[in-house]
């Protein structure tokens, strides 16, 4: 028998590792656009899932943003069905909030999450690659988005209660395309992937190639390693916050209060994370760095300044605590 193409073997091995340990008899759902990455993922899942006693399905989201998108979605579903997956096409309405890329992504993930829950899936699989990870880290760095953005995408995360797995996150896009060719797959080429109105496309076609040319090969892999290291740091910080938070917070009228002494005793990195964590947990909003630093001044540079208006809440120092109260309470 002819040997398996190395690229195809690498993709299947990554998928097998991702699926191992899921409950036998359960279902897994693949987000399938019809592009090379998701097509290679769907084919590998169709090959590996039955060996592990898993049922496999694909969901193709038609955003309706391009002429012929319905035909492309049906073609992707047909290819998935040929590889043994139960194939579903879902049409969504894309809003306008946050720009076209963000709106399409939000609509897509809502549809994928709903489909996975309807199927009772043990996991939803999406096809982000190492190149996608490198682009995400570069964009976060350029925007000054902080450590949370530079962590990139996690191999395993949560989508509204559904485990979200990215089996191909350690594989280069070129390897994925080679796997498709070896597997006899003809991917759909999304015109948006070449539309340089989008920052991600410019990063892919202009920025990363220049970095590779000027700094040498391996830039994408280095960016992906950076993301992994930052996720490890973030997990350590999260554990420290979980261990600390119950001892330093107390209820306040219409909100929550945090001990000034405890905040002052912590190093800045942990102090700022505690502030952001408290606001996010209590009021479900995210603070910018400048907002976080302004709140921290209530601890480190207190000179009687008044309340600070924040998204969804207000912070003020009251004696030995910093109080966070909901906006509009009049406190």
What's a quick, concise take on this entry?
The chain is of the alpha/beta class and 331 residues long.
How do the helices and strands line up, and which of them pair or pack?
Elements: H1 6-19, E1 27-31, H2 36-48, E2 55-62, H3 69-82, E3 86-91, H4 100-118, E4 123-125, H5 130-143, H6 147-150, E5 156-159, E6 162-165, H7 173-182, H8 199-215, H9 219-248, E7 249-252, E8 255-259, H10 260-265, H11 268-283, H12 289-300, E9 308-310, E10 313-318, E11 321-326
Parallel strand pairs: 1-2, 1-4, 2-3, 4-6
Antiparallel strand pairs: 5-6, 7-8, 8-11, 9-10, 10-11
Helix pairs in contact: 1-2, 1-7, 2-7, 5-8, 5-9, 9-11, 11-12
Care to describe what's here?
The chain folds into 2 domains: 6-222, 3-Layer(aba) Sandwich (Rossmann fold); 253-326, Uridine Diphospho-n-acetylenolpyruvylglucosamine Reductase, domain 3, CATH 3.30.465. With 331 residues, the chain is of the alpha/beta class. The chain has 12 helices and 11 strands. It is elongated, with a radius of gyration of 23 Å. Strand 10 (313-318) and strand 11 (321-326) form a beta hairpin. The model has no long low-confidence stretch (mean pLDDT 90). The strands form 2 sheets. A 6-stranded mixed β-sheet has the order 3-2-1-4-6-5, sandwiched between helices. It has a 5-stranded antiparallel β-sheet with strand order 7-8-11-10-9.
